[in-house]
Automatic annotation (TrEMBL):
Domain (ABC3 transporter permease C-terminal) ranges: 181-294
Residues annotated as transmembrane: 27-48, 173-196, 202-220, 232-250, 262-287
InterPro entries recorded: ABC3_permease_C (IPR003838), FtsX (IPR004513)
Organism name: Salinihabitans flavidus
Name this polypeptide is given: Cell division transport system permease protein
PANTHER family in alphabetical order: CELL DIVISION PROTEIN FTSX (PTHR47755:SF1)
Protein keywords: Cell cycle, Cell division, Cell membrane, Membrane, Transmembrane, Transmembrane helix
GO cellular component, one term: plasma membrane
Example of a GO biological process term: cell division
Species lineage: Bacteria, Pseudomonadati, Pseudomonadota, Alphaproteobacteria, Rhodobacterales
Compartmental location: Cell membrane
Domain of life: Bacteria
Primary location group: membrane
Length: 300
């Protein structure tokens, strides 16, 4: 029998065999609720993982090819040292551009911490120079040596100490999201296994009669596997749909909102939650098949 024919037979089912499995009741409700709840949570876990991945990429892209030079010097020497630093940077291989931030830009950087009324002119604020690297990058150690000789008040920050912890944290969040999906799938499998055991135990007499009239354990188990698999598929479909609607209700990503406003799906990522019902059906299929065979051996 081809795969297509086997799938069609599984979906259509057997009316005689389906009578073995109760169409409603505690086990049906438990299976539907467990699949829907786990799928709903899986949507959020998947969204967390994808958002963490996007965050890691954004942080890496923003910080990987940029550096900052900070110049601390007396006010009468600031302009001279700034010009000297720019000359060094312009002749350094691997640096695409370098420019000194003006007073308005530096005030904007300090405003979130000190407010808009910061008297920048009366404070010994260092001069900042923004450095943009080429794809190949530059030799940070060599540049520090040149700066120490020509611009004693200059301190180079290549953002490595900021970028690596942020990328590591985002990577762990992504791993946590996928680990949560695995735990959700395992929990759903356990709950469906318990429901299948309860259904098999409740129908022990019916199973005994079916065996007397010639029904094989494979025939009986297939009825349970089919019913519980379809219940998990429909329940997970409903849960995933509700989860996607909940994700649509979240605020869109914003520069000022940070990570929490970017928790969601983007582009083709909206297709990924559609895999959750299929995954739930696969978990239910495997869990019910194992539970049915084990229980039928016990009832033999």
């Amino acid at each position: 029998m081809s795969l297509r024919a086997s799938l069609r037979t599984f979906l259509v089912g057997d009316a005689q065999a389906d009578r073995v499995v109760p169409p409603s009741g505690f086990t049906a409700q438990l299976t539907l609720f467990a699949a829907a709840a786990m799928a709903f949570l899986a949507v959020f876990a998947m969204a967390l993982s994808l958002a963490a991945g996007r965050l890691a990429e954004r942080w890496g892209a923003e910080l990987a090819h940029s550096s900052t030079l900070r110049i601390s010097a007396p006010s009468e020497q600031m302009a001279e040292q700034t010009a000297a630093a720019l000359r060094v940077l312009e002749t350094t291989p691997g640096i695409a551009s370098a420019r000194a931030l003006d007073k308005a830009e530096q005030r904007a950087l300090l405003e979130p911490w000190f407010g808009p009324d910061l008297p920048l002119e009366s404070l010994p604020v260092p001069q900042l120079i923004e450095i943009v690297e080429t794809e190949e990058g530059y030799d940070a150690s060599g540049l520090r040596l040149r700066l120490s000789a020509e611009v004693p008040g200059a301190v180079l920050d290549d953002h490595t100490r900021w970028r690596r912890p942020l990328e590591a944290a985002a990577g762990r969040l992504r791993l946590l999201g996928w680990l949560s999906i695995g735990l959700i799938a395992g929990t759903m499998g356990v709950m469906i296994t318990l429901a299948a055991h309860a259904a098999l135990a409740a129908n022990a007499q019916v199973i005994a009669v079916l065996r007397l009239v010639g029904a094989t354990d494979h025939y009986i188990a297939r009825a349970f596997v089919r019913r519980f698999t379809l219940r998990a598929l429909f329940g997970a479909g409903a849960g995933a749909g509700l989860g996607m609607l909940a994700m649509l209700a979240l605020p869109e990503a914003q520069e000022t909102g940070g990570f929490l406003t970017g928790l969601g799906f983007a582009g083709a990522g909206w297709l990924l939650p559609l895999l959750i019902p299929v995954l739930a059906a696969g978990v239910a299929y495997g869990a019910t098949r194992i539970a049915a065979r084990r229980r039928l051996r016990e009832l033999a």
